[in-house]
Amino acid sequence: MKTRIYSVLVENRSGVLCKVAGLFSRRCFNIDSLAVGETDDPATSRMTIVSSGDERTIEQIEKQLNKKLDVIKVNTYAERQCITREMMLVKIRYNKNNRREIMELCEIMKVAIVDMSRHFMMLQICDTPDRVKLLLEMLRTVSIVEVARTGTLALAKCSENDEG
Questions:
Q1: What kind of fold does domain 84-154 have according to CATH?
Q2: What pLDDT score was predicted for residue 160?
Q3: Does the pLDDT value for residue 163 go beyond 80?
């Protein structure tokens, strides 16, 4: 099984997300992560889709995405070919016994404490998907109340051959 990241530039109009997600569900392709947002041009959005499968499945996903009318451009990346980031907010319950340990973990992993009350903290991390997973694993010893993650965002690594 190989993981691929599809950076899909689409027309920014209603129904496009549904059409692309439908393509995956109809063919039983799994979506590991999906993030969508408007680009610098309000007429276009970028969908970043992480999926995995054998070589044939990966090729089929790219071919099927390119057939969609609302799709402007599809780039397919292996993880090493691009820079990836994910954001996560996690609300945890803390106490006087683990407060210092949590704060030290935040300092080591460059995690921001974005909200705090007497018994709860909300942490924010923006890092690689692996580091986000690592933080979640490290926080398993405390009481995690709620988690929200963006999904992976990705762009090709910079190159002197870039357009524009």
A1: Alpha-Beta Plaits (3.30.70)
A2: 78
A3: no
Please state the pTM of the whole predicted model: 0.86
In residues, how long is the chain? 164
**Dihedral (CA of 105, 108, 111, 114) sign:** positive
Upper half-sphere CA count for residue 75 (Cβ side, 13 Å): 14
Terminal Cα distance for the chain, rounded: 35
The answer to whether residues 44 and 9 touch, using CB atoms and an 8 Å cutoff, is yes
CATH topology of 2-77 equal to that of 84-154? yes
CB contact at 8 A, 154 and 7: yes
State residue 93 phi and psi, 5-degree precision.
-95, 135
Over residues 136-155, mean pLDDT: 94
Non-local (6+) Cβ contacts of 69 within 8 A are none
- Identity of the amino acid at 80: R
The residue extents of the domains of the chain are 2-77, 84-154
Mean pLDDT, rounded, for 51-77: 92
Domain 2-77 in CATH 3.30.70.260? The answer is yes
Q: Which residues does residue 91 pair with via DSSP β-bridges, in sequence order?
A: 122, 146
Lookup: tokens for 36: 């969508």
